[in-house]
Structures are given as structure tokens and as C-alpha cells.
Design brief:
Elements (H helix, E strand, L loop, with lengths): L7 H4 L3 E6 L8 E5 L6 E5 L6 H16 L3 E10 L2 E8 L2
Antiparallel strand pairs: 1-2, 1-5, 2-3, 4-5
Length: about 90
């Protein structure tokens, strides 16, 4: 059962990231969401990082915005083009 006093970011199980290729008006980005509960954001793709690092960085940026006391722990499974990231509270 969800703790009614906990914030939404403290009760979500995973963060989803997905690569979005360039368009005519912007470069490549990583789309990050929790599935629509708290919202989504786009993070600019960093060519100096590999794909996993870009996805993990974007997931951490989303967490920093919604739950700064948490950090990305590891990727979970990939499904439908998304990578699901688990997180934990910073110690």
C-alpha cells in the first residue's frame, strides 16, 4: 500500500528512458519519464558518452529534479524501446 504522506517521487518504482533521434529543429535527445505520473523531460544527447551512460545520466537528471535524495542504481529490463531504471535513496 502506498504511504499517503510520501511524495510521488518517493513511491515510484522505475524511471523510463528512450533515445530520440535528431529532427530538423533539434539534435538527438533522451526522453525521460516515470510513465506520466510526475512528468517527462528531454535531455540533450552527449556524444562524449556511450548510449548507456547517456541514458543513465538522463535518468539521474530526472531524479535530481523530482527526488534529489535518490540516485540511479542500475538498468532493469528494456521493453518497447525504453530502458527501465531502478533507483535508491542516497546514503
Amino acid at each position: 500500500m502506498r504511504n499517503p504522506t510520501a511524495s510521488a517521487a518517493e513511491t515510484r518504482a522505475s524511471i523510463k528512458t528512450k533515445y530520440s533521434g535528431p529532427t530538423n529543429s533539434r539534435g538527438s535527445t533522451v526522453y525521460v519519464t516515470d510513465g506520466g505520473y510526475l512528468g517527462a523531460m528531454r535531455v540533450t544527447w552527449d556524444d562524449a558518452l556511450n548510449a548507456d551512460q547517456n541514458m543513465m545520466t538522463a535518468a539521474q537528471m530526472w531524479l535530481d529534479r523530482h527526488n534529489p535524495k535518490a540516485r540511479v542504481k542500475s538498468p532493469g529490463l528494456s521493453f518497447d524501446g525504453f530502458t527501465l531504471w531502478t533507483w535508491e535513496h542516497k546514503s
